[in-house]
Each structure stands twice: as structure tokens, then as C-alpha cells.
């Protein structure tokens, strides 16, 4: 049985953004890892926010890129070394535009477009064990329509 301190899980989103065979990644500070790690644009759901909105917001806040969500890659449940459990919905997206003057989150050191091979070469520095498998699912074509994510109110998907 899971200790009460580990539950309920933190609800998060992650976004795989691909352009010409390269993936939008952030290099960010992670206290648990003790340094810089690579991650997809990702973060927590905020109160009153839907999963799709969170994915768009996190991508913009962490990378300065506006994106168009194109599908759902999957849902993951993982427990971090600190005992926190994360319930993560991962999305596929295409870049729309780099937003001039966008303010990037303070913990982001750099924004990169990395090839799959570069990501694999840096696999020891990935923030989470979910990062690479999510990209691999995307590469295998495991994308589901955005309306796979049911919202309890009518919503348009763009």
C-alpha cells in the first residue's frame, strides 16, 4: 500500500515538439539531480486549468515557443526518488512561432532543438525516466486525437 504522503499524485503535462527531426528540449536546474538536466517542456496543472491549456502554457513559459497540439501520446504514472507520484499526460505538438520577448521560467538555463541521437547520448542527464520513452512512443506514431482527453465542458480543439 502507498503511504499517504505519496498520494494523491501530482497532475502534470509534458509536450513533445518536433521540427525537422529535432525535439524542443529544456536544460533546467534540478535540485534532486544536483545540477542541470534535460526535459521536455513540462509542468504541473494549475487550479482551474485544463490539460490542453496547461500543455500550451508550460511550453510557452519554459521555451518561449507557441505550439499547436496535434495529439495525445499517452498517460504515465511514476514515482520520483523523493516519493512524489506523478500522473502525466503527454502531448505531441508542432511549433508555431518563437514568441519575441517571452519570459522564460527562471529555472530554465537553455532551450535546445536536439536530435533523437543527442537525447539518447544525454540519457543519463534526463530529468525523468519518462522523457525518452515518451519521445520513442511519439517516434513510433503513437498519437491519439486530442478529443481522447475528455473535458467536462464543450471545448474547441485547434
From TrEMBL:
Gene3D superfamilies: Nucleoside Triphosphate Pyrophosphohydrolase (3.90.79.10). GO terms for molecular function: nucleoside diphosphate phosphatase activity; ribonucleoside triphosphate phosphatase activity; thiamine diphosphate phosphatase activity. Monomer. Its EC number is 3.6.1.-. Its cofactor is Mg(2+). Residues 8-139 form the Nudix hydrolase domain. Belongs to the Nudix hydrolase family. NudJ subfamily. This is Phosphatase NudJ.
